[in-house]
Design a protein that fits this description.
Radius of gyration: 11 Å
Largest sheet: 2 strands, antiparallel
Number of helices: 2
Helix content: 40-55%
Distance between the termini: 22 Å
Number of domains: 1
Number of strands: 2
Shape: globular
Length: about 55
Amino acid sequence: MLDEPDGERDRRGHCFARYADDGNLLVKSQRAGERGMASVTRLLSNSLRLTVNPL
């Protein structure tokens, strides 16, 4: 189910660790983190209809 988001992160060169249904996106700056969070949230909620908890 999460192959599409994993592929997108790999394509963009992001470092990511997923543990079951939790994940960490590792970035170099706060701005990159905000953009990454928005992108991941959009992808997961729109494409996969999943709820993202930002905490």
